[in-house]
Design a protein that fits this description.
single chain, mainly alpha, 4 helices, 0% strand, elongated
């Protein structure tokens, strides 16, 4: 019986600390998370454009191969967007 009482006391202490906010992790708002992710994508696209300008690929196929080798974790859609910006597309493909 004493073990159960100590367990309940321990749980009530945890709840009171959480209600004050001491034990709660900071939760980022959805808008802040989207903004941060969008900024990361824009930085990757800029890096991809710089990479293509440095190596001057002769074709779109060669450009995509260069980008895949240099940015293996970036999705194909980002590599295509970087190529599209350089080939006369919009300056902001995700705007």
């Amino acid at each position: 019986m004493a073990v159960i009482a100590k367990r309940e006391e321990h749980l009530s202490n945890d709840v009171s600390a959480a209600s004050v906010g001491h034990a709660m992790p900071m939760i980022m708002s959805a808008d802040a998370r989207v903004s941060r992710e969008r900024g990361a994508v824009v930085r990757r696209l800029d890096a991809m454009k710089d990479h293509l300008l440095t190596f001057q690929p002769a074709s779109g196929n060669e450009a995509l191969k260069l980008l895949r080798a240099a940015f293996p974790d970036s999705p194909l859609s980002e590599r295509v967007a970087a190529l599209g910006v350089l080939s006369g597309g919009s300056d902001t493909p995700f705007a």
